[in-house]
TrEMBL record:
Keywords: Methyltransferase, Transferase, Ubiquinone. It comes from the Bacteria. One of its GO terms (molecular function) is methyltransferase activity. The keyword Transferase applies. This is Ubiquinone/menaquinone biosynthesis C-methylase UbiE. One of its GO terms (biological process) is methylation. Residues 41-141 form the Methyltransferase domain.
Length: 210
């Protein structure tokens, strides 16, 4: 689901970039860096997270997808200097083969790491997005996530300012419980912030899948 105008403005602002630095630091603490990795990013928005995946996590490349052409245009400008290390595609996080098909990406077990900076709560069928993450990760590959839970989405400020799917949103516990159903092992590598409004974690793709 696309962001409304308020969220689109906030997501490309200095406070969001500052917050994303903090989120990246927590994710590195939980799951380590990804030097030399071939990675995918779900819902890259204006591309600041993509830059962090390259600069902070040390990935070699990022295939990034977003539904919104306006966000992709911003990301393209921001990431120009990284050249062929970044591939930006319009499409859905629930079908990475379609999005990355032109570069032969999005195949089974094709990424060392997948990043989700606050996007899966925008997807009506969020379980389908987790299944897609698991499908494209190599065995032992890592899924870095930073998510907004149903608790946050139910707050009056969220409801007044932003548009999100309303049915079947996940609590932190529901999101964590869904991961192993797709062969994603989470263990203790997660934290909540501001009560249980925000959930950050790093899951690992198991060898055998489910
Ligand atoms: C809250 S923004 C996060 C953007 C960026 N990751 C960040 O943290 O600043 C959510 C982004 O997900 C995108 N989005 C929503 N549903 C999507 C889907 N099914 N597939 C890909 N991108 C999607 C939106 O267009 C938006 O750019």
């Amino acid at each position: 689901m696309l962001m409304n105008r308020v969220e689109s403005a906030l997501i490309d602002s200095p406070p969001r970039r500052l917050l994303q630095h903090y989120e990246a630091a927590v994710l590195v603490e939980l799951g380590g860096r990804t030097p030399g990795a071939h990675t995918a990013e779900l819902g890259c928005g204006p591309g600041y997270g993509t830059k962090l995946i390259l600069d902070t996590f040390g990935a070699a490349s990022v295939d990034a997808v977003d539904l919104d052409p306006k966000m992709l245009a911003k990301a393209r400008r921001r990431l120009q200097r990284h050249g062929e290390r970044v591939y930006l595609a319009r499409g859905s996080a629930t079908d990475l083969a379609a999005a990355f098909g032109p570069i032969d990406g999005g195949k089974d077990a094709s990424y060392d790491a997948v990043f989700d900076f606050a996007i899966i709560h925008h997807i009506p069928n969020w379980r389908e997005a987790l299944a897609e993450v698991a499908r494209v990760l190599t065995p032992g590959g890592r899924f870095f996530f930073d998510e907004v839970t149903a608790t946050a989405l139910a707050r009056p400020t969220y409801k007044a300012l932003f548009d999100h799917p309303t049915a079947d949103r996940f609590s932190a516990g529901e999101f964590l419980a869904e991961l192993p159903r797709h062969g994603l092992h989470i263990g203790e590598n997660w934290r909540t912030r501001i009560g249980s409004d925000y959930l950050l974690g790093v899951a690992t793709r198991t060898q055998k899948g489910r």
